Amino acid sequence: MVRKELVVDLGTILLMAGLAYGLGVLWYSLLPAKLPDKVWRVAAYPFIGIFVAEALLPNVWESDPKFGGVYLFAALIGSIVAVIVDWLIAEVRKPVAETRPRVSETAAR
Q1: pLDDT exceeds 70 at position 76
Q2: Is residue 46 part of a domain?
Q3: In terms of CB atoms within 10 Å, which of 23, 24, 54, 87 comes out highest?
């Protein structure tokens, strides 16, 4: 059994962080949603998506170009999927406005 070691440099992590922020701004701008109020969410979800895609997609798609230790198409796919998941979660969690006014119990008596 041949054992492969995975070495991740600090430069690769910084490249992933910068790529995640840039792709997060791009995807959030293209979706019919606004940028999140919290700046960390712009990069956090794409970063997680890139991380998961880096683990899963290069084994399936071998012709993906690699730059600085990051597979580029896997990064694009992972970041857009993560941003869409975050956007869908934000849409589902949005409170629905009530159409009729509430009547308090003390006012009803």
Answers
A1: yes
A2: yes
A3: 24
